[in-house]
Structures are given as structure tokens and as C-alpha cells.
Amino acid sequence: MEALLRGTLAVDGDGCVRAETAGGPVSLVWPKGYTARGDSTSFEVLDAGKNVVARSGAPLAMGGGGIDSFNDTWTERDCAKGKLWMVGTLGTD
User: What highest taxon heads this organism's lineage (predicted)?
Assistant: First the structure.
């Protein structure tokens, strides 16, 4: 889980937070306890301690790695479409 994904966060038509990258949209699998607040045009991602770690539209660099399948115990299963990325660390781009 040491790869790097660069992009911006956006909401798709189904209300799922995704990364918009140069290679196209990527479905994000967030660590346990992460949540989003706001709406489809302006939102923040909060970690398990309720600290803001990302905002919609802001450039972002995400450590982690690509995964092949979605685990049945993970939340937001309906948002798992296309390329999947397991989010590890977050930073600004």
C-alpha cells in the first residue's frame, strides 16, 4: 500500500465520493470510520476522529494501492465501480 494516486475528489451521479484522476475516475475505499459531510457540490471527508482530511475539488495525493475486489464487510458497496483504490495516507498535492 505504498503507491500514490493524484487527483481531486468529486461526487458521481450516485452520490459516491470518487477521485478524478488523469486516467479517469477511481472508486475510493476509505479506512474504517471515515465519513463525508456536505452535498454533491461542496463536501469534506472526515477521519475517524472527525478531523477534516480532504475537501471536494482540492488537489490531493493519496497513498495506498489498487485492489481487485471489494470485501463484503466494507461499507458503501454500491459505490464500488470501475477501478478501486484502498486509501492509506492523505496529503495535499
Answer: Bacteria
